[in-house]
Automatic annotation (TrEMBL):
Protein name: Oligo-1,6-glucosidase
One MF annotation (Gene Ontology) recorded for this entry: alpha-amylase activity
One annotated GO biological process: oligosaccharide catabolic process
Listed SUPFAM superfamilies: (Trans)glycosidases (SSF51445), Glycosyl hydrolase domain (SSF51011)
Homology family: Belongs to the glycosyl hydrolase 13 family.
Length: 629
């Protein structure tokens, strides 16, 4: 189908991009999909949108939508057959942010030997796979997400020998290890970029996105960087500009260049040859940019907070590139892949992960990390009732050819417990409630370091305490826009990525047992109360709960492969069954701080695990219980 101004909404919804973009725009506006799914709205033509929206969108917006919908013509193919079993579907993944995990040599920076020292802890928890945020050689403009040399280890983290020892230690314990693969961009200190700058005739020049100024002076287009300002660097000696979607030192690669693509595949195979077990692929959906790098639409820019995204979040060659990469690398090994794909909704995700298409095993979609209409830096209380709606959509409609990822935290987001309810009285019950959801739904759970302790947000009292380039740049941008220092700091405290990057809380010792030296970032003041050592000794701790719920999942295939059946309840409750070959579990959750009436008499079932000790007549605040039927 070819889309134009004449297309009707109901037809647009049949295109995966159309469906997901409309869902995203509605969500951003705080509205539900139901709004467009009724027959009257379904018959509206795209060309009527400017009038209907009273000028909120114009004709150019409509044309942009139509061209987006046409850019990827593939549609998901239904598959209701049995789920294909795989080791990575049964695995529990644990994300390590190496800089903040464990320092072994007193320089205040976490390192590979530190991780090796803690492998028994991870084994005790029940983890199957470790994912390491980048450990490659890097000038650390963005803590390793700016890679200078893909085949070397960052000096602060150790040596290749340390890495080999870590990998052996992981395998010796029956665990696996996956690496972070950052191939949308490299550091501007990478040999390819340096060569491209020094020698414009070098083949490396076309590895990046160099463009002349638009009118002799201004950047080639209006795209903005995720870390503030224009997405273009100016190289005056050459009167050229180069694209960077992230920091000024993270230069975007040109995936339309075949030589660049083979260089990347060669590097991937080099690591796979070393025996690692897979990759998490950084912003992998951004690699293909729209032909001609056109200006971003201002309306979309305002809605999304960044200008230009519509031209690369789901580019025209994305699927081709992923299929080619899969064929030349992953398909030759027994490994897992998970793509980080901001902005990707359920229909696009189906195309990216459908096993028959051979692209990626899983993706991280982010729709559930904020409430509708909210963004990460907005100050609000996260409402779990919205989480239920999004998760249910994926549980019920993703199909059996694709496999979910399940996560609430990572190194880019504040702690989930704090977002939901910062009242310390509820910390443990909420942390356990989240674990119940994460380990009883269909998909592979990804735990971020410290989540298993119920770690909470920090409270930064000055910008000097922050380390993240995003926070620091945003702070200065806010001051420039007229905010006071206190106002700017409040906003940064709301959404800073540094909340997740304070040191892992190992014990009540100085600096949380993370380092014997001066830590690169201040530990969260909560560590005397919240730490691994004390939680390992406490049968009621969040850590103990994680151990139990992970073990339960490992022992029961119904919790992995079982059918998901939602029980109809009021919005305040989240109740469902997981069913496989006669084995059946019932999960009963109160999503609110208020007591709620139970839906069914769960008294007939056997409680297996709960965040409260004994069931009462009413469901208590945030009560979450797993029953066996
Ligand atoms: O993140 C990509 C991404 O889009 C975000 O989560 C990002 O941190 C945020 O939206 C910025 O506004 C990945 C990595 O996870 C992140 O740590 C890196 O900084 C980024 O890519 C660039 O490599
Ligand atoms: Ca160190």
């Amino acid at each position: 189908m070819v889309y134009s101004r004449e297309s009707r909404i109901k037809d647009v919804l049949k295109s995966p991009v159309g469906h997901d973009v409309i869902a995203k725009l509605l969500m951003q506006a705080g509205k539900s999909m139901a709004l467009v799914e009724n027959p009257i709205v379904g018959n509206i033509k795209l060309k009527s949108l400017p009038k209907l929206s009273r000028g909120l969108v114009d004709d150019s917006f409509v044309d942009l939508l139509a061209s987006l919908f046409n850019s990827v013509p593939d549609t998901p193919q239904p598959y209701d057959g049995p789920i294909q079993r795989a080791w990575w579907k049964e695995a529990v993944v644990y994300q390590i942010y190496p800089r903040s995990f464990q320092d072994s040599n007193g320089d205040g920076i976490g390192d590979l030997n530190g991780i090796t020292q803690r492998l028994d802890y991870l084994k005790e928890l029940g983890v199957d796979v470790l994912w390491l945020s980048p450990i490659y050689d890097s000038p650390n403009d963005d803590n390793g997400y700016d890679i200078r040399d893909y085949k070397a280890i960052m000096k602060e983290f150790g040596t290749m020998e340390d890495f080999n020892r870590l990998l052996d230690g992981v395998h010796a314990r029956g665990m696996k290890l996956i690496m972070d693969l950052v191939i949308n961009h490299t550091s501007d200190e990478h040999a390819w970029f340096k060569e491209a700058l020094q020698n414009p005739d070098s083949p490396c020049r076309d590895y990046y996105l160099f463009r002349p100024a638009k009118d002799g002076k201004t950047p080639p287009n209006n795209w903005t960087s995720f870390f503030s300002g224009s997405a273009w660097n100016h190289y005056p000696e050459q009167s050229f500009w180069a694209l960077h979607l992230f920091s000024k030192k993270q230069m975007d690669l040109n995936w339309d260049n075949p030589a660049l693509r083979s260089s990347v595949y060669e590097m991937i195979n080099w690591w796979l040859q070393k025996g690692i077990d897979g990759f998490r692929l950084d912003v992998i959906n951004y690699i293909s940019k729209a032909e001609g790098l056109p200006d971003g639409n201002e309306t979309v820019g305002k809605l999304m907070g960044f200008t230009g995204v519509e031209h690369y979040f789901y580019g025209p060659n994305l699927h081709r590139c992923l299929q080619e990469m899969h064929e030349n690398t992953f398909s030759r090994y027994d490994v897992m892949t998970v793509g980080e794909t901001p902005g990707v909704g359920i229909e696009m995700a189906k195309l990216l992960t459908d096993e028959r298409r051979k692209e990626l095993d899983m993706v991280f979609s982010f729709d559930h990390l904020e409430n509708p209409g909210k963004a990460r830096f907005d100050l609000y209380r996260y409402d779990l009732r919205c989480l239920k709606e999004i998760l249910c959509d994926w549980q019920q409609h993703y199909g059996n050819a694709s496999w979910n990822s399940l996560f609430f935290e990572n190194h880019d987001n504040p702690r989930m417990v704090s977002k939901i309810n910062p009242d310390p009285a509820f910390r443990e019950v909420i942390a356990k409630l989240l674990a119940v959801i994460q380990f009883t739904l269909k998909g592979t759970p990804f735990v971020f370091q410290g989540q298993e302790l119920g770690m909470v947000n920090a409270s930064f009292s000055s910008i000097d305490e922050l380390r993240d380039i995003e926070s620091i740049n945003l702070y200065h941008e806010l001051l420039q826009k007229g905010k006071s220092e206190a106002e700017a700091l409040t906003i940064i405290n709301g959404g800073s990525r540094d909340h997740a990057r304070t040191p892992m809380q190992w014990s009540g010792e100085p600096n949380a047992g993370f380092t014997a030296g001066e830590p690169w970032i201040r530990p969260n003041a909560s560590y005397p109360a919240i730490n691994a050592e004390s939680e390992q000794q406490d049968a009621q701790s969040v850590f103990a709960f994680y151990k139990q719920v992970i073990a339960l999942r490992h022992q029961n295939p119904a919790l992995v492969y079982g059918e998901f059946a939602l029980e109809p309840t009021p919005r305040e409750l989240f109740c469902y069954r997981r069913v496989l070959d006669g084995a059946e579990f019932y999960i009963e959750i109160n999503l609110t701080e208020q007591p709620q009436k139970r839906k069914a008499k769960a008294s007939a079932y056997t409680p297996v695990l709960s965040n409260y000790t004994k069931p009462l007549e009413m469901l208590r605040p945030y009560e979450a219980t797993i029953y066996r039927i």
